[in-house]
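ok so for the tutorial part 2 we go from a plain amino acid sequence to predicted structure tokens. step 1 is just haveing the sequence, like this:
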Amino acid sequence: IGFDPRIALNLNTMYHNTTNETVKLAEYFDKATRQDEKVMDFFTLNPGVEFTPPEVHKYVSSMAPLTSIRRAITNLTNAGKLVRSDVKRQGIYGRDNFTWKLRTHQMSLL
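step 2 — the prediction. this is what the tokens look like for a chain of 110 residues:
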């Protein structure tokens, strides 16, 4: 499943340029965009299933930093594509993590 451009996120939020990068900005933006697409594809393939950010990291891209997965989940949540549930599971550092799942059409109607 590819990322549907009709549900594309606000391009200004894909990559957060906190280091004032100018030379490799396009490259970093492309990587962040692909990361968001991978995370969205993962949730689309697992509708109704809740995952913590470390779980998504494990299944989607263990090569990417966990913070990149968290950023992608935040971007997709802000775009209305994912919803955070009230369910928490213990994470990799012994701390509770919230879970997220794909927003369904029914949820959009609420």
